[in-house]
């Protein structure tokens, strides 16, 4: 069984009622989603603020939530089309919809996995297909005329690098959208935030990497806050993970 479909929600949340919302999300909402046939895992992250020089969309119609990321994995993307998120939420009680309404700037993508490469930390990762303690998730669009170059960059350079030292990368996945503003996404899984920093410090200035990074900066238009660097807050990260 593989987790080839991913439902991603980015959103903001007011400080007021945050703890009540988390209690509801982790113990009522997430278990309900996981009851759906074909749904395999859930993970909730708080974004870590970092500097970013990427080109972001100026389209005001794109919801701007950045602070939290909620992800569900399924056997394939169409699992989340039976029903779609909006129709699924319409079935909720008034009380549950009131909790959902606390989210602001909510942005949703449903993605299908196009490819993945395991990292050096994968053999020692004990949680199987469950998402890692740290993720970096880029979501963006690319002019169609440049998509072949982008495919080359990811398949020949960026993705294979996860299998090289330092041994902190668990997986990298290339995702393609079936619903939502961003047409493309790249998701790294790391052992920790510190491991992520160590990885990029080791790789960003490589001769085969730097020209492509400059190309990416010129040609990809990212969603608000992308790329998102997230620390997992549910399920709780066990000691030693």
Description:
This protein is an alpha+beta fold and 241 residues long. The protein has helices at residues 18-34, 85-90, 94-100, 147-158, 193-203, 210-219; strands spanning 5-12, 39-47, 68-74, 104-118, 134-141, 169-179, 184-190, 221-222, 228-234. Strands 1-3-2-9-5-7-6-4 form an eight-stranded antiparallel barrel.
Which features characterize this protein?
241 residues; 8-stranded antiparallel beta barrel; alpha+beta; Alpha-Beta Plaits; 31% strand
CATH class assignment? Alpha Beta
| Radius of gyration (Å) | 17 Å
> Residue-averaged pLDDT, rounded?
94
Taken together, the total number of domains comes to 1
Short characterization:
This protein has 6 helices and 9 strands, in the order βαββααββαββααββ. The protein has helices at 18-34, 85-90, 94-100, 147-158, 193-203, 210-219; strands at 5-12, 39-47, 68-74, 104-118, 134-141, 169-179, 184-190, 221-222, 228-234.
Question: How are the secondary structure elements laid out?
Answer:
Blueprint: E1 5-12, H1 18-34, E2 39-47, E3 68-74, H2 85-90, H3 94-100, E4 104-118, E5 134-141, H4 147-158, E6 169-179, E7 184-190, H5 193-203, H6 210-219, E8 221-222, E9 228-234
Antiparallel strand pairs: 1-3, 1-4, 2-3, 2-9, 4-6, 5-7, 5-8, 5-9, 6-7
